[in-house]
C-alpha cells in the first residue's frame, strides 16, 4: 500500500535515526589531491619504507587500495605525516602505473603471481661458474621473466677463478645479452666492480640469482659501506647457498649513479604468468616472421612461420633456437 502521494513534501517523510551516530556510507572516494609522490624502497610485514624527496618515511597501505599491494620500486602517492620523524606513520593511498614488472610464481602450476620489483630498468642475472654449479635452466627462466616484464637483462658470471665462462657465454651468445665476468680477486681489488657499475649507470637494476652465487657480495661491493648486508656461505653437502637476504631492498649507488635492488635468493622461478607473445617482442629480428603464424602459435610447432622466415635468410637460425629454448622453459624444471 502506497504511503505517500506522488508529490510528497520531503519534510513529511520520516527519517530513521542513525543509532551509531556516524555518517552514512558513500561510494564517493576522496581524490587526495594533496598526496605527495614517493618511492617504496623496502617492504617488511605491512610496513613500507618510502623515499619522499630526501626523507625516509614509514608508511602503511590504505584500506581503499584493497588487495592491491605496493612492492619495492613502486612510485606511490602518500598522505599523512611525511616528516620522517621516529614513530610517525604515513599512508599510501595510490600506486602509480608501472613501467616494468618482474614477476614470478612458485612453480609453473601455481596461478598466484608474486611481483618481485616494479619499475626496474634492468635485470642482472647473477650465476656462479662453480660452487654452486651454474643452472642454465634457471637463467633461461629469468631471461623470459625479464623479456615478459619489460626489463633489459644483464648476465653476471661470478667466481671465474674456479671455472671458465666460455661454455655459458657460447650458450647465450646468440641472444646478444650483455655480460660481465668477475672473479673473487677482481672483486677484492675493485676492477670487477667498475665493470659492473658501468652497466648500471643511471638505471634501476634488480639483482636475482639462487643462494650462494655471490649476489649480495657483489651488491655490497657496489654500494657504500653503511648500506651493506650480511652474506652467507655455500653448504658443502647440498651445494646450495644459505638465505641471508630475506626481503627485497632498494639501495642507492654512490654519487646518485643509479639504484640496485637486492632480492632474496631463489630456488625456483615459475612462469605460469608468462604470455609467449610478449617474449617474442625481445627478438625484433624474428617478430615480423610471426605474421603468418597460425592463431595461438607456440612458435615451436610444424606450421610455425618462423621456420620459413629463417630459411629465407631474414634471421640467424641460432636466434630461433634460442627463442624456442626460452619458450620451452615452462615445460622443464629448473634443475634439468
Strand order of the largest sheet: 10-9-8-11-13-12
Topology as a string of helices (H) and strands (E): EEEEEEEEHEHEHHEHEEHHH
Number of helices: 8
The proportion of residues in beta strands is: 15-25%
Structural class: alpha/beta
Low-confidence stretches: 229-245
Number of strands: 13
Describe this structure in words.
With 336 residues, the chain is α/β, with parallel strands linked by helices. The protein has eight helices and 13 strands. It has helices at residues 136-149, 166-172, 184-189, 191-200, 215-222, 276-279, 306-311, 317-327; strands spanning 36-44, 47-52, 55-61, 75-80, 90-95, 101-104, 114-118, 122-128, 152-158, 179-181, 203-208, 249-252, 258-262. The protein is globular, with a radius of gyration of 25 Å.
Descriptive tags:
336 residues, 5-stranded mixed β-barrel, 20% helix
Summarize the structure in short.
This protein has eight helices and 13 strands.
Strand-helix topology:
Elements: E1 36-44, E2 47-52, E3 55-61, E4 75-80, E5 90-95, E6 101-104, E7 114-118, E8 122-128, H1 136-149, E9 152-158, H2 166-172, E10 179-181, H3 184-189, H4 191-200, E11 203-208, H5 215-222, E12 249-252, E13 258-262, H6 276-279, H7 306-311, H8 317-327
Parallel strand pairs: 3-5, 8-9, 8-11, 9-10, 11-13
Antiparallel strand pairs: 1-2, 1-4, 2-3, 4-5, 6-7, 12-13
